[in-house]
């Protein structure tokens, strides 16, 4: 039987008196594209922040690839194969696209591998997202959509088993979104993808399964057809989103 890539058990996180994530039990199988949806403030970003180690849980456990990672610092999780890109653009504006990605590659090198390995890894990631011809451009001078792609390249350069994307299509044009969907499908041939996404057409096209958060709790999970017809989800999210 295939083992899950990621599991959370009773995962919770409090901010003062507010329970942002409430006893989340979650299982992600290798090779999946999983979307996380839910209204604003539902706890989606907090949940993925717990998985990648940006913040630590108040209680509960996280397992990744057969190991318990609940208390591991973020950089150790990166080495195990968890990469993430966040809502807020995190590129270094003054560094070239290449240097941004090369920094990511260096994070994966534990044995001081050669500059050749860095170059190879960085260029491969830039090629995957279609930015190889802009390798020398300072990241801050790239168009917004290209900066978002650069962030994905920075994630890919970590050669992740799990790539977490938080609202990657936010601010992209329709044409860019179409390219993005194709890119995610391509990435999913090698990595498991966990994506927080507000754009429903993107979610419905891409996700094998969808997990719905509301007020910190997972209220539903299923394939796109199941989620579309789930009345609790419609009330919590889809109904609200469409007035
Ligand atoms: N560092 C923090 N300190 C205090 N409260 C926080 C912090 N981070 C998140 N919260 C609160 O936790 C709740 C969940 O927030 P979170 O950002 O995880 O939701 P979300 O589902 O990602 O929302 P959005 O779709 O708007 O990004 C919100 O009420 C938010 O205000």
From TrEMBL:
InterPro entries the record matches: AAA+_ATPase, ABC_AA/LPS_Transport, ABC_transporter-like_ATP-bd, BCA_ABC_TP_C, P-loop_NTPase
Alphabetical keyword list: ATP-binding, Nucleotide-binding, Transport
GO function term, MF aspect, one: ATP binding
TM regions (residue ranges): none
Keyword Ion transport found: no
Domain ABC transporter stretches: 6-240
Tagged with keyword ATP-binding: yes
Entry-linked Pfam families: ABC_tran, BCA_ABC_TP_C
Protein name: ABC transporter ATP-binding protein
């Amino acid at each position: 039987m295939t083992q899950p890539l990621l599991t959370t058990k009773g995962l919770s996180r409090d901010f003062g008196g507010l329970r942002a994530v409430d006893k989340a039990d979650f299982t992600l199988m290798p090779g999946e594209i999983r979307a996380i949806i839910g209204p604003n403030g539902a706890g989606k970003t907090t949940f993925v922040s717990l998985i990648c180690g940006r913040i630590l849980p108040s209680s509960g456990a996280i397992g990744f690839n057969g190991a318990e990672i609940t208390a591991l610092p973020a950089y150790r999780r990166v080495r195990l194969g968890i990469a993430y890109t966040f809502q807020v653009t995190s590129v270094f504006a003054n560094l070239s696209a290449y240097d941004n990605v090369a920094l990511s590659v260096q994070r994966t090198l534990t044995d001081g591998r050669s500059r050749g390995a860095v170059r190879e890894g960085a260029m491969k990631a830039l090629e995957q997202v279609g930015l190889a011809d802009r390798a020398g451009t300072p990241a801050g001078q790239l168009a917004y959509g290209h900066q978002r792609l650069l962030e994905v390249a920075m994630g890919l350069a970590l050669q992740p088993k799990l790539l977490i994307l938080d609202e990657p299509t936010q601010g992209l044009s329709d044409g860019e979104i179409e390219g993005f969907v194709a890119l995610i499908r391509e990435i999913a041939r090698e990595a498991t993808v966990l994506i927080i996404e507000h754009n429903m057409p993107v979610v419905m096209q891409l996700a094998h399964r969808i997990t719905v958060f509301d007020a910190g709790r997972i209220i539903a999970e299923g394939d796109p057809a199941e989620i579309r017809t789930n009345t609790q989800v419609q009330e919590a999210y889809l109904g609200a989103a469409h007035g």
